[in-house]
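INFO  loader      accepted 1 record
INFO  loader      residues=172
INFO  predictor   begin
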Amino acid sequence: MEYLTLFSTLVMGNLQYVLLGMTVMILLALIIFININIKMAKMNRRYRKMMQGMEGVNIERLLMGHIDEVRQTVAKVEQLSAACSQMENISKSCVQKMGIVRFNAFEDTGSDLSYAVALLDGNNNGVILSSIFGRSESRSYAKPVVDGQSSYFLTNEEKQALELAMKKNNPS
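INFO  predictor   done
INFO  writer      dumping tokens
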């Protein structure tokens, strides 16, 4: 009991300081309350903006749907990458380089109607097609090429066409 009377006389003797302290604490609490309300309003605006057009949609379900879409996209990219690699391998055996030489095989014919064409793949394998055009006849020849070499005798024009083709860079 003695403590209670001591406390009571202490408070009553310093009432203006007690009221001043409580007023400062109330003002401080008001400032904190206003600050929290401002932050809450900003967060609420961001939330509404994020959820715009999503009435009734569960965020977890929405995120899971996006994760599934990303997984499907990754799988599709992997499939496309494998298909691209397969097409690159196939294209190595397709004609990628070509050299053409036109020439006049005989002096008694008027123009460069004869030709030699070298068609090579990415590994310098392919064929040399040549046509010799004469006054009364035309002859065509096909000579295989493996690693830039032919097992058949090549004319100067055929060699020139082969060199032209082999100088070209592979597109792949």
